[in-house]
Amino acid sequence: MEDCRSVSTPMAAKEKLQKNDGTDAVDASMYRSLIGCLMYLIATRLDILFAVSVLSRFMNSPSQLHLVAAKRVLRYLKGTLFFGVKFRKGQKFKLQGFSNSDWASLVDDMKSTSGYCFTLGSACFSWCSKKQEIVAQSTAEAEFIATTAAANQALWLKKIMKDLWLNSGDCIEANVDNEAALAISQNQFSMSEPGSSDRAQGEVHRSNSDSLGAPSMWVFRVTYLLATSMVAEEQEEAEARRLDGSSSG
Question: CA 14: distance to chain centroid?
Answer without folding.
Answer: 16
